[in-house]
Amino acid sequence: MTIVETGALFLIGTSTAAAAGFNFTHIGSPDDALGSEVTVATDDGNLAGGSVVALVEASPRPYARYTAVRWTPEMGIKTLPNLSDNAATQTTSVRSYVAVRDLTADGSKLLFNSHTTSDDRRATAVCSPDGSNIFELTTLPGGEKITIGNQISDGGAVIFGYDIDVVVNRTSRWTAATGFEVLALPAPYNRSAPAQGAISTDGAVSAGAMFTYDADFNQTASQAYWWTAAEGVKGIGYLPGHDRSNALDLSADGSVVLGSSSNSTTSASELFLWKDGAMTSLGYPHEGNPGDYFVAAAAMDSDARVVTVAQEHSFCPLGCETEQNYISYIMNPENGYYVEFREAVAKARGTSAIKGWRDFYINGVTDDGNTVYGNAVGPGGKFEGFIGVPAHDGRADTPPEHFDTVAGRLCR
């Protein structure tokens, strides 16, 4: 792969594989990086945001350093800048969440988190697609309330985020008119965080999770929440038999929450849709033990018609051997069918386009439900962000035809 660095710009040999009209675009990764990921994308696939990660040698041990990036087919990966140091920025050893976390539907504004110029702090900002017109939230009065931005409304006028001390602290909302407002929580919850991208088009509705932590920072409770200006933060409950839940995404009109529910005594995570006060289970994507199922990421399109999920697993059924750490699915909530990603690709006649790729981790699906994005491990063993796989062509409208068992999905 050829990389030309000009200032903060890496021009990378992006590759697109096509098969029978099926496109699979991986965005590349700098040679000195461990890999890249796509965390957000526009419907047309011509703008994506995410991060690249590099290993930094340090004492007492090396660490992974993330850098927020944006990508276009013409320019490749372009790094977004470090942000200003000030009293409000966050000093923390936690180096995750540095990435583009959300964007407006038209791609005119990117919400990203970045290191500060001293490189030991973290802050959040909004910028134009080319990285210009940077508006640093964390430098504003009260900016310490949002050092991690997670949600931006389509007009860019409303932003939700949070800060971290030892663990997540409290969700805050920012508007140009009101400034920063910390969301009040119902008892016994004392901390909260908004879910990435889980905001309505107009910014009037937001979703996330609230938590209870004891004096030793042990989490003792969690519940998904739905926020409106009229009702404030409202817990939406759990699936039967569970006592933990988390919101993961929100429909464009704010009426439908996608989330996961679990029991504190097990590791199983079960997806649900919540609407009008009712929570409906989306079940599990495979026939194995539900206790083996852990949701690593899940998202939906603007109308809650297409759901994507990445499953993390630490088991291998029937004694098979596999290098797969993640399995991703496309799901149709109307009929409950989960189709494993590679099967969806096969339905779209695109198997040759992903030959040699594995560990597909879908981060999300575009608002129109037609394209998924995330990262996967390529033939060379490095993980790279990908975009441009049409979910619509492989939508889960019919029962799965291949990989009918967990073993079949993992042991290929």
Class from secondary-structure proportions: mainly beta
User: What is the total tally of β strands?
Assistant: 32
Biggest β-sheet description: 5 strands, antiparallel
Low-confidence stretches: 1-13, 315-322, 401-412
| Strand numbers in spatial order across the main sheet | 3-4-32-31-30
Instruction: Name the beta content range.
Output: over 45%
Fraction of helical residues: under 10%
Give the overall shape, derived from the CA principal axes.
globular
**Overall pLDDT level:** 84
Q: How far apart, in Å, are the first and last alpha carbons? A: 28 Å
What's the layout of helices and strands?
Blueprint: E1 3-6, E2 9-12, E3 15-19, E4 22-26, E5 35-41, E6 48-56, E7 63-72, E8 76-79, E9 90-91, E10 100-103, E11 110-115, E12 121-127, E13 135-136, E14 148-152, E15 158-164, E16 168-175, E17 179-182, E18 191-199, E19 205-213, E20 219-228, E21 232-235, E22 244-250, E23 256-262, E24 269-275, E25 278-281, E26 294-300, E27 307-312, E28 326-332, E29 337-340, H1 341-347, E30 358-365, E31 371-377, E32 383-390, H2 406-410
Antiparallel strand pairs: 1-2, 3-4, 4-32, 5-6, 6-7, 7-8, 9-12, 10-11, 11-12, 12-13, 14-15, 15-16, 16-17, 18-19, 19-20, 20-21, 22-23, 23-24, 24-25, 26-27, 27-28, 28-29, 30-31, 31-32
